[in-house]
Specification:
Elements: H1 2-36, H2 41-51, H3 53-66, H4 71-111, E1 122-126, E2 129-133, H5 144-153, E3 158-159, E4 168-169, H6 173-202, H7 217-241, H8 243-246, H9 251-277, H10 289-315, H11 328-338, H12 343-352, H13 355-361, H14 364-373, H15 383-420
Antiparallel strand pairs: 1-2, 3-4
């Protein structure tokens, strides 16, 4: 009987490893293709960040299954990236709206009487998805957020989704920042809860699957559920308000890939914990109940990630952004090579030297936006903010000095007028 149990564990580990390897190969190949055809940086930077969810989820779950005593620490990184992906999807929706705006502006300019064709814009229309990339850094172009604020200002008041549909809100700057804050809070709260869970686990106070009030699991689960619910609710609110602008980009399959993973990962854990609580799942003399529940959750995620990688190939296809100027023979050679066991070496060497990948993995935009949304810039001003404050101070000083000179001159003129009188 003991030998049979060990065989089941071994075969479960092998099966999880096979699906993990397959998920990583499919996802890294898709990332590689996006890097090669990096023709729409405003969109693909967020897409690449989302695509890395599969390897991170699969590898962390596999190592958690293999080294079950350290599962809490492997899952810590997985939980942090889960929150990060939700916010990146929100940024992707914003980027889609900006592309929609640019497409409308370029179309108006091209249709203007006597206008010359715009060669600075690249229009890629594939599979019904419209992508416009051009000289978007010109001086006369509005900032990224201002474009969305102006577009939102043209919309009528919108109702909140169920169950708060009796309330309405006016789309605009406050609406955009509210949605951003409510989505971004999950990026902050989720890692914080994961770190607290790891600390409690060290002192044997977490006890995953135990709903007792003297254990931390129930409190972490409740707070996690509230945070993710608020984040997804305002993500759906933003999507519902801007749905007409997002239709050309087919966001529903993309949203489904993210929502299903996040919700499945959460509710799978809750259901397994309930099964443990009612005694359906239990441990053995060699394996504790907590290890059984954690291992089962990790095994399921390893299997799911392979199918999610295939779904990503459809939802985040690189064909929309394909650079037709590249040599078709080179594509054929790369495709053949990537189908062999040389894929990890080929892709990793190309990706590590890739400027597009470095651009996608840079987190400066996330840090800047977090500081701006939560008002931390007043405590830790950036060098640019210091320069702006210094310039404002100099301008105020110069304007104050000019005002004093004008007042003195005016007083002298009044005195001279009185003497003449």
């Amino acid at each position: 009987k003991e030998k049979t149990r060990m065989q089941v564990v071994t075969w479960a580990l092998v099966l999880a490893g096979v699906f993990t390897l397959g998920a990583c190969i499919v996802s890294l190949y898709l990332v590689y293709k996006h890097v090669v055809h990096y023709t729409a940086p405003r969109l693909q930077r967020f897409i690449i960040r989302i695509l890395f969810m599969v390897p991170i989820y699969a590898l962390s779950s596999f190592f958690s299954l293999r080294y079950i005593d350290y599962a809490t620490y492997f899952n810590l990184f997985r939980d942090c990236y889960e929150a990060y992906v939700i916010y990146q999807f929100f940024n992707l929706l914003e980027a889609f709206i900006n592309v929609y705006y640019d497409e409308g502006v370029l179309r108006q300019q091209e249709e203007a009487p006597g206008a010359e064709p715009l060669h600075t814009a690249q229009h890629i229309i594939a599979g019904g998805e419209i992508v416009t990339e051009g000289n978007n850094d010109s001086e006369d172009r509005l900032p990224f957020e201002e474009i969305i604020v102006q577009m939102l200002g043209t919309l009528p008041r919108a109702s909140y989704p169920f169950p708060f549909s009796m309330f309405t809100i006016q789309p605009g700057r406050d609406f955009l920042r509210l949605c951003k804050r409510c989505v971004l809070q999950f990026v902050i709260i989720k890692p914080t809860l994961a770190i607290i869970a790891a600390v409690l686990n060290v002192y044997d106070k977490f006890d995953e699957g135990n709903f007792s009030l003297d254990r931390g699991y129930i409190y972490i689960t409740i707070l996690d559920n509230i945070s993710i619910t608020v984040s997804m609710y305002f993500l759906i609110l933003f999507w519902s308000v801007t749905s007409d602008w997002l239709k050309p980009f087919h966001p529903f399959p993309k949203f489904l890939c993210i929502k299903l993973v996040v919700m499945f990962a959460f509710w799978q854990g809750v259901i397994i914990a309930l099964l443990v609580y009612f005694g359906v799942i239990h441990g053995t003399e060699e394996i504790t109940t907590e290890h059984v529940s954690t291992g089962l959750q990790d095994f399921i995620i390893c299997i799911e990630m392979f199918f999610l990688a295939l779904a990503h190939g459809y939802a985040f296809s690189f064909e929309t952004y394909r650079d037709l100027s590249l040599n078709s023979c080179m594509h054929t050679w790369i495709d053949c090579l990537c189908c062999t066991f040389c894929l990890p070496c080929c892709c990793c060497c190309r990706l590590c030297r890739s400027k597009p990948l470095n651009d996608a993995l840079s987190q400066s935009d996330l840090l800047d936006e977090s500081v701006d949304l939560f008002g931390i810039h007043n405590l830790f001003p950036s060098p640019a903010a210091k320069d702006q404050a210094r310039n404002r101070s100099n301008n105020n000083h110069s304007s104050h000095s000019s005002s004093n000179r004008n007042n003195r001159k005016r007083n002298e003129e009044e005195v001279e007028a009185q003497e003449l009188f």
